[in-house]
Amino acid sequence: MKLAIVGIGYVGLVSGACFAEFGYKTVCIDKDAKRIKSLKFGKCPFYEPGMDNLLSKHLKKTKLLTFSTSLSDSIKDADIVFITVGTPSKRLDDEADLSYVWSVAEEISQNIKKYCLVVTKSTVPVGTSKEIKKIINKKISQDNFDVVSNPEFLREGSAIDDFIRPDRVVIGTENSKAEKIMKELYRPLYLRETPIVSTSIETAEIIKYASNSFLATKIGFINEVADLCEAVGANVQEVSKAMGIDQRIGSKFLHAGPGYGGSCFPKDVKAFSSTAKKYNVDLTIINAVHEANQNRIKNIANKIIKNTEKKSILSFLGLSFKPNTDDIRESTSIKLASYLYKKGYVINCYDPVSISNVKKEFTRFNYFNSSY
Ligand code: NAD
């Protein structure tokens, strides 16, 4: 089976390298020529543990992995084309910006030469994959392609392991032909008895948003409990440990902190709620989670302001949105630092992997080469 992956960010590159690890010939396509040039030399554009080794193995030894800027050349003989471009929030509202998805769908429609699956791995609102189908169908007859939703659940920082040992794989299809091809694709996971959940396309799209929103809800929940613990002299870490032992609750995503950040939860929670509004459904819990998370930074900043002298020096250890990644999108650490900088504090920073990314965007902080 030959694979093509369009959009080589965190998800696209991890998927490409891991599909090569499964034994598939995989071409990775991105419009960013600089990114593709350095990838051809085996240089990963971001920090992800294990990625350098995997790249070197499949670029040089197995030669299963190739990189290109040209979608037209690369998808000609592909059996499956994955869409893994970004779906950030729109600038002025909570909806997902699907412009990258539409533009790739358009380009795919101009270049399909034989039957293939077009698979959405990007996180997209319900209905998007069917829209992709309509776009492609304007140029390509329905016999020559099928659309599939195959949402991705990997976490940055442990992305390779998550891809190779996922908790489950979700496959949303419209017919048994597409389902059969997708199941064949993930056959290497059968040995591990990975659950493969086959659903409709709409259900698969919802599963992704519901999962991320639920995890965000757990974080929001324990943060509110933390506030109460602080007010009454209880210990939230002990509360969360004891709660987490209960298997109905589970210990993951139950650690109090400065709120969730990153490239997924903030935008996905907002997009989920925004989609629901379009269908006249009010996701009150999800809306409250978003609002509580927005307030969390301000509340923590105000505690710092109340307990320190103005213009004191604050040191931030860790700037990415979580450990083991250099991704600084929606980092709560940086949001907190920026808020306090505006209030007159001096901000000193250190992060072992993300510091160069932060330096480019935030020139007013002081940067150091070690935590000491
Ligand atoms: P990213 O921003 O890191 O990468 C997107 C890539 O797509 C960029 O390299 C960009 O140059 C490329 N691109 C944009 N338009 C293109 C076009 N027309 N042709 C070719 N390439 C194009 O994005 P990401 O973090 O990998 O996320 C991708 C999707 O996966 C999003 O929908 C996200 O919500 C979802 N997702 C992300 C994660 C994660 O941890 N990052 C996890 C699960 C799902």
Keywords:
alpha/beta, six-stranded parallel beta sheet, 46% helix, 13% strand, binds nicotinamide-adenine-dinucleotide
Briefly note the structural class of the backbone.
Answer: alpha/beta
Total number of strands = 11
Put simply, the count of helices is: 14
Q: Strands of the biggest beta sheet: in what spatial order?
A: 3-2-1-4-5-6
Q: From the alpha-carbon coordinates, what is the Rg to the nearest angstrom?
A: 22 Å
- 3D shape: globular
Written as H for each helix and E for each strand, in order along the chain, the element string is EHEHHEHEHEHEHEHEHHHHEHEHE
**Could you give the distance between the termini?**
51 Å
Question: What percentage of amino acids are in beta strands?
Answer: 5-15%
Bound molecules: nicotinamide-adenine-dinucleotide
Helix content: 40-55%
Low-pLDDT parts are none
Q: What is this entry, summarized?
A:
With 372 residues, this protein is an alpha/beta fold. It has helices spanning 10-22, 33-40, 51-61, 71-74, 99-109, 128-137, 159-164, 176-185, 201-232, 236-245, 265-278, 284-307, 332-342, 355-361, and strands at 2-6, 25-29, 65-68, 80-83, 116-120, 145-149, 169-172, 196-199, 313-317, 346-350, 366-367. It is globular.
